Amino acid sequence: MATDPRTRLVQVDALQAFIDRALQAAGMPAADAGITATLMSQADLQGSDGHGVIRLVPYLKRIRSGGMNLHPNLRLVHERPGMGVLDGDNGIGHVVVSKAVDIAIEKARACGVAWVGTRASNHAGPASLYARMPIEHDMIGLYFAVGNANHLPPWGGLEMLLSTNPIACGIPALHEPPVVLDMATTVAAYGKVKAKAKAGETMPEGWMIDREGRPLLDPKRAEEGFLLPIGGYKGFGLALIVGLLAGTLQGAAMGREVIDFNRDYVTKTNTGQAILVIDLRAFGDPAAFKARVDTVVRDLRNAPRMPGVERIWMPGEQSFERRRVRAAEGIPLLPAIVDELAALAGELGIAPLA
Amino acid sequence: MATDPRTRLVQVDALQAFIDRALQAAGMPAADAGITATLMSQADLQGSDGHGVIRLVPYLKRIRSGGMNLHPNLRLVHERPGMGVLDGDNGIGHVVVSKAVDIAIEKARACGVAWVGTRASNHAGPASLYARMPIEHDMIGLYFAVGNANHLPPWGGLEMLLSTNPIACGIPALHEPPVVLDMATTVAAYGKVKAKAKAGETMPEGWMIDREGRPLLDPKRAEEGFLLPIGGYKGFGLALIVGLLAGTLQGAAMGREVIDFNRDYVTKTNTGQAILVIDLRAFGDPAAFKARVDTVVRDLRNAPRMPGVERIWMPGEQSFERRRVRAAEGIPLLPAIVDELAALAGELGIAPLA
Lengths: 354, 354
Fold this sequence. Notes:
The structure is a homodimer. Chain A has helices at residues 12-25, 30-45, 56-64, 93-111, 127-132, 190-199, 233-246, 286-301, 317-329, 335-348, and strands spanning 8-10, 75-80, 83-87, 113-119, 139-145, 167-171, 179-183, 208-210, 215-216, 225-227, 273-279, 331-333.
């Protein structure tokens, strides 16, 4: 992305402060704007470009359209010692899911593991942000979410009834970076398709097909086709299971109930997410576990490589590196985004991105 | 499989009784032989041919070689209200994992969800058998296991340090069959490769590659190559996460520690499995949830289909159908297996397969 000469490098603090200003100008209370701005800028920092500041204008459009509640009353509608269902009252996803993770961490301390799901939530950015949160508490996070638009038909079908429903998992290591998987159950996430469109690039074969099953390469034609699941019918099965666990189980939208949040800015999305938190202390000495993770990671990384492969990467390791590089050098923002944010500043009457 | 004219149709009860006799003749206590024979014959009944009676001779070889403990002392080595780690004392996997699922069901009743993992376990047959067990209690099962031989290198690597590490999930429906996903994180499970070899068939392209990255089609040459993960690097990531959750977390073998149970019949495998059980009652009315699952299933099944597709199948639905058909018509056993079991009966001095 940094190849376009008009790409601008922005410091993460400046980006976070700008998002914070914009959300507060739109009427979001300071505490919630702070949480959301932090997580959105962290998404850009780690290279989840399809889930960071690129979403700011759509979020604001939804807020202005009355499609998101700026003053939600978050409450647990079901609760047991090891589980809870948090009703997000149509608040922004970042705030709702952060709260769900906090509750799950507390419950896991008592029970060893805990599951907290959400309903009446909204888009919350990259799954990895939430799967990573338990790590600093010496806990594992396993996260499931229902995506906010259906782009995947059942295997063999033509009607897009499933979203890319991601799975994410954060596992602490001792000296190595944590293992952090964050994967859509499709070959490509729809956010990546949108990023390609914004960058004016074509998609590789295998990301999408059209209704006749032919490869679809132009991301601007994305609405004429659908995403392909990983491993064919297996990816369909995973997307279904994740949707049932993250959505249906919590009473959140799934299948035909899912609102396409790129087209409909008014209807409540009733988004569902769920996190399982596992407290390492319940399984013995956390340091001993983390040392075993180090061993596995090093064995894998040091394996002999196929010709032409320079390095074997663990899940999350490239994001880890990118966070380091972007924290030092800044986050590259494409000209289209920079222009969009400049216009937004004028529109909201706030200080522009520094 | 039923196309070979020498294929024999066997009733599930007869198969179960034969496996039971064989295990008891090898010295397994009656209760454990009963559990194992039931689950092994259920594997064949549902069409998991790579995990049923085909494994009987290798299991007996391991028992005779002293590689499996016929009188294990199963005990919880870690326990919290919502979790447990069950040490299987090197007993057969079917017995160890069944016990782990029973404990998880009890704990889920109290906490809403529960995680029980195993260590010092062994191969336990198809993952779906265990993921399905909570269903009759109005619970969901989410199951992870470390496979018993490494066939998967890290993405870009050449050394097979990971197994096919399956994920399985059983979700109850109301009038529809339950949704039961059971998938290896590779395009094909190694059991399927073995079944192809036994049937004298070739593998489709995409299942395996050789060390130069060329397609490997002859299942008898399987040892010269390795399995391909689903979705490329994503499948590698999933296999790693599943291995860390099912193996490393419980103190079971993972990565380089995994024993190839097809070559080494003596060394303790220290197999790890884990199940998460979710009690639907904690989330509201189980019947309401199950009705919502029905709706999702029916919407997906009734979606318009691609040209040439006769039916859209849900995960587990084909196994469900196969169970029905095989319960009525019998389980088709290939001549090689029939001969093997006849020889085994003579060797053990037990009544042959009826």
